[in-house]
Amino acid sequence: MNEKKLIAIIGAGESGTGAAILAKKQGYEVFVSDFGEIAEVYKRELSENSIQFEEKKHSEDTIFQAVEVIKSPGIADKAPIIKKLQARNIPVISEIEFAGRYTQAKMICITGSNGKSTTTLLTYHILKNAGLNVGLAGNIGKSFARQVAHENFECYVLEISSFMLDNMYQFKADVAVLLNITPDHLDRYDYKMENYIASKLRIVQNQQADDVFIYCEDDPETVAALKHCNLKSKDYPFSIQSKPVEGAYLDNNQLIINLKNQNQFTMSINELALQGKHNIYNSMASGIVAKVLELRNESIRESMGNFKNIEHRLEHVARISGIDFINDSKATNVNSTWYALESMTTDVVLILGGVDKGNDYNMLKDLVKSKVRSIVCLGKDNKRIHDAFEDDVDVIVNTFSAHEAVNMAYHMARKGDTVLLSPACASFDLFRNYEDRGNQFKKAVMEL
């Protein structure tokens, strides 16, 4: 291999495979290495593109010849291969960093602990319906690098996780959105909130005066962090507690967006497709993006009214014997579960549990006391859930499959109740991922 042109890619999922295809197109020698098993669809694609790859090992002699290494976001910096690369001063970057070099498209980048996927999809929906030549990528759908290799979009809406931000250096968001900062993935950040906050604030790095930053003025962690941030871009806050001069706010149940030199946008929150307090924030963020891009109010209003939310995010599955079943499997942290419970208007049988990422369940206590009839644990180790809520609900039971959890919840619920799967935990103890957990939940509900 030509040492000057070798790019090594660690991880061969959607992100890694997309990066490999783009690197090959840009004339690099490419070597893909995955310590686990590579899915057949990606092995076939790498072979068809004449890209060398390996699985179930890392051939360090080859990888260490690379001028640069692209790391899939799921691989932690503390992984042995990454530590060895860093010790050799071989640059390790994200797929987003790499792909950003090869497109002139406008970058609309959305991050936050909660609401990223919903806001990203809503923003994409608004822009696409307005006729923009727009791509959707990042932590969602087809990889950004794959699309840069094959498509010619004029702008991208990117869902950016903290894991992606950690290995971004020169990449710049033209429009950056930070929805909120709440404890999540602290296992990846040495259990230090300040490390996680620093990661999220990388969304504004490299921004200049003609770029835009959109953030929630009601989020205390964001506001506190911004006091120590040398922000160069034009900022637009959104709030339901105050009325910023420029940005978005509520006035008598009207969502208002004010930007200088533009017609004011107004829309009743009752007409929004996304209901619930947390979704008002998501709609505000997306609406500001649309106004920054100078889209017509009528077009924005229509899109915000007809948007269909994503699977596994407060997804209504069925009503059986007067009991509603809601799939919120994408709620993999405590704050997401808080939002789900906050939006409930009935008594709840709550299905919780999975791989605990260092959760602090205290923030759920008041909502559990006021809304939750009983808790069904779905996970291998449920001790921390029992410890947290044993004084707040009458019944907590353990289950070890979606089928068992659904049946137990169905028998515990009463007519008019909601059975809510909102686990507050990752899914990897019993399921492949949160989609698998949500799909098994839905299948079990339909079998009742």
TrEMBL record:
A molecular function GO annotation: UDP-N-acetylmuramoylalanine-D-glutamate ligase activity
SUPFAM superfamilies noted in UniProt: MurCD N-terminal domain (SSF51984), MurD-like peptide ligases, catalytic domain (SSF53623), MurD-like peptide ligases, peptide-binding domain (SSF53244)
Record bears the keyword RNA-binding: no
EC number: 6.3.2.9
Keywords recorded for this protein, A-Z: ATP-binding, Cell cycle, Cell division, Cell shape, Cell wall biogenesis/degradation, Cytoplasm, Ligase, Nucleotide-binding, Peptidoglycan synthesis
Predominant cellular place of this UniProt entry's protein: cytoplasm
Pfam family, one: MurD_N
A cellular component annotation (GO) from this entry: cytoplasm
Compartments, as annotated in UniProt: Cytoplasm
Gene3D superfamilies in the record: Mur ligase, C-terminal domain, Mur-like, catalytic domain, NAD(P)-binding Rossmann-like Domain
EC primary class: ligase
This protein's record includes keyword Nucleotide-binding: yes
Domain of life: Bacteria
Gene Ontology biological process terms from the UniProt entry: cell division; cell wall organization; peptidoglycan biosynthetic process; regulation of cell shape
InterPro entries assigned to the protein according to its UniProt record, in alphabetical order: Mur-like_cat_sf, Mur_ligase_C, Mur_ligase_C_dom_sf, Mur_ligase_cen, MurD
Catalytically driven reaction(s): UDP-N-acetyl-alpha-D-muramoyl-L-alanine + D-glutamate + ATP = UDP-N-acetyl-alpha-D-muramoyl-L-alanyl-D-glutamate + ADP + phosphate + H(+)
Function according to Swiss-Prot or TrEMBL: Cell wall formation. Catalyzes the addition of glutamate to the nucleotide precursor UDP-N-acetylmuramoyl-L-alanine (UMA).
Family designation: Belongs to the MurCDEF family.
HAMAP family for this protein: MurD
Protein name in the entry: UDP-N-acetylmuramoylalanine--D-glutamate ligase
Organism: Hufsiella arboris
